[in-house]
Each structure stands twice: as structure tokens, then as C-alpha cells.
Amino acid sequence: MGIQIEQITLHQIRMPLVHFFETSFGRTTERHMVLVEVKAGGISGWGEVTAGENPFYNEEWTESAWLIVRDYAAPRVLNYRFENAEGVGARTAHIRGHNMARGGLEAAVWDLEARMLGLPLYRHIGGGARREIPCGVSIGIQDSVPQLLQKIETELAAGYKRIKMKIKPGWDVDVIRQVRQKFPDILLMADANSAYTLEDAPRLKCLDEFGLMMIEQPLAHDEIIDHAKLQAQLKTPICLDECIRSAHQAAQALEMDAGRIVNIKLGRVGGFAEAKRVHDVAQKAGVPVWCGGMLEAGIGRAHNIALATLPNFVLPGDVSASKRYWARDIIHPAVETTPQGTIAVRDEPGFGYDLDLDFIKSIAVRRETVS
């Protein structure tokens, strides 16, 4: 068929969270996100840049993403004849890093192409291994342990199948012990967001007694070798997140036994094409994957649902209901979970939900078209 993008529009929106979200990086109370709209043949496709407001998770943030897409990625993609959406990532690969900015644009083209073909996005990327996505929740660092325990109880009552709690030095072993005492049988994991070093191995070994599914990214974002050294000392599987930005890095890390589970985030690896390659590397190695979250609004959440239908996404991911984060989402209907803690996959063309364009306009901070 071929595809040629005629226009790219960036929308920066501001959305307050219904509850603050705190990690080892700090506390977030509202999100500033860049939405990417691409047009061809009178049809629009949409992507969401998942970068945070500050360059703490990785080197990207809202402002950098706006500039990278507008000034570098968009000019390379506009009016270029692609055989299919698979080629967009390669077209912008000369940009070093900035996977989230590039991935937001690439995801928009996948959505556009799916709509032009009349296909649901999950089918277009080669997914469809499951009709419902098993969901977990990510719970940030709270003001007190009782507050954390209450939030976990609320999420379990909503049917979620896995609890991820954020940890950092001073909010780790003793807190997890209290969680396990109250909830001895739940699927529980801890996410450190790179808060520790290899010198903390004795403390991290203490977590082995709690039967965790995994410890996610305990060491620095670029420490594959030290993760391998740490994994050799732990019974609990390490899950790699920030370390994995490409299929090549995934293959290296798994060969070294630096981790035994991989979190795939669409933005972190630069879009659907590379996410599928990471998925395939892990599947070939017999390593399970799951879909991580970045406090996405509805577009990014819908893209994550599509991604999680690929066959090796066998663990509950961070894809959860819109209402956990937003009083009102930018799509309708909002993403909802079943009483069993799953999300049903929708068969409408593209990412499967309608856009609330009036609401997007009302919360827009700025808008700019490149054509």
C-alpha cells in the first residue's frame, strides 16, 4: 500500500493526577504530555510521547520531546514514501537517543496505517494472542505504611492481579515485610527505579524472604554488568527496565543473566517495531515480558493494550483503568477493567477508542503543525 505523511501536529496537554505518584526520582502530581497527530489521505493517526516532565527516568522530558519531534524527527518523516509503518524508526535512527520522542511519532504512524487498512492496531502489529489483558497496578511511595496498605487493599478489591510497589533506601525491607504480613499470598513485586548500587546487595538479598515475583531495575540505568553480578546473589528474579533500550541490549543482558524478566515500554525502546524485536529476543531466550507504564493518558494506554496482546506478554503489566490516574481521560470510553482484573481488547480500527477532541483542545498548553 505504502504510506506518505502529509502533516504532523503536536499537542502538549496538561492533566492533573487524581493522586500523587512517587518513585525514587520524586513525586509527580500532574503530567505534561506531547501528543503526536499524523495525517495522510484525510485520516489521522495518534501517538503519545511517554517522557516525564523532568529528565529523571531517562534523558528525555516534555520540552526536549517537543523539540526533537518538531525539529528533527518530523522533517525526516514528512512527505517521505514509506513502504509501511515498520520503516519509520529506521528513518529517524540517526537521532541519537530520544527514543520516547521518536517512538511517539512512530506509534502514531502505526495507528494511522491500521486505520487506513481498517484493522485494529493489535492485529496490525501481529498481536492477538489474548482477548483480555491481565492487569497489575503500580503503587508509588506513600506518606505512611498504613496508607500503602489501604491502597493495596483497594486495588485488590478492584480485581487487579498483581501489585507493584515502588521502593528506595529507607522504604524497602521493613515496608515489604509489613505488606507481606497483611497480604501473604498476593503477586507482589518491587520496583527500585535504579535507587541502589551493587554495594547494597546484602540489603537487596533480604528481599528474597518475601517471595516477590521480581525486583525491577534495582541498579543504574546503564549497569548491565552489575545487574548480572547482583542476580547471581539473589533468588528473586531481576526485571530489567531502564537498561533495555533495544533488542541488541536485551540479547546482551539475557546472555549475561543480568535479569530473568524484561519490562517492555513502548516509548523507552522507540516504538512498536523495536518493541516487537525485544519481545522476540526474550521469547527466544525463554524469558517472560510484561508491559510497563509511564503514567500515560488514553492514547498511550490504548497502545500498551495492543502491545500486550503479543504472545510473550505472559505477566500482568502496568496497564490499568483510566480512573486510577485521571478524573477524565482524553479517549472515550475510558479504559476500564473487568471484575477479574483484565482489560478487554477492542476491535475498532486503530488503537480502538474514540478521541475526545474537545477535551484535548481544552487542556492543551500549545499546539503546532509541521507540514
Outline the structure in words.
- 49% of the residues are buried.
- The mean pLDDT is 96.
- The strands form 5 sheets. The chain has a 7-stranded parallel beta sheet with strand order 7-8-9-10-11-12-13.
- The protein has helices spanning 62-77, 88-91, 99-117, 121-124, 145-157, 173-182, 201-205, 224-231, 247-255, 266-269, 272-284, 298-307, 357-362, and strands at residues 3-4, 7-23, 26-40, 43-49, 81-82, 132-134, 137-139, 163-166, 188-191, 215-216, 238-240, 261-264, 289-291, 331-332, 342-344, 354-355, 364-370.
- The protein has 2 domains: 3-118 and 356-370, Enolase-like, domain 1 (2-Layer Sandwich), CATH 3.30.390.10; 124-344, TIM Barrel (Alpha-Beta Barrel), CATH 3.20.20.120.
- Helix 7 links the parallel strand 9 (188-191) and strand 10.
- It is an alpha/beta fold.
- Helix content is 33%, strand content 22%.
What structural keywords apply?
371 residues, 33% helix, 7-stranded parallel beta sheet, 4-stranded antiparallel beta sheet, 2 domains, alpha/beta, TIM Barrel, 13 helices, Enolase-like, domain 1
Topology summary:
Blueprint: E1 3-4, E2 7-23, E3 26-40, E4 43-49, H1 62-77, E5 81-82, H2 88-91, H3 99-117, H4 121-124, E6 132-134, E7 137-139, H5 145-157, E8 163-166, H6 173-182, E9 188-191, H7 201-205, E10 215-216, H8 224-231, E11 238-240, H9 247-255, E12 261-264, H10 266-269, H11 272-284, E13 289-291, H12 298-307, E14 331-332, E15 342-344, E16 354-355, H13 357-362, E17 364-370
Parallel strand pairs: 7-8, 8-9, 9-10, 10-11, 11-12, 12-13
Antiparallel strand pairs: 1-5, 2-3, 2-17, 3-4, 6-15, 14-16
Helix pairs in contact: 1-3, 9-11
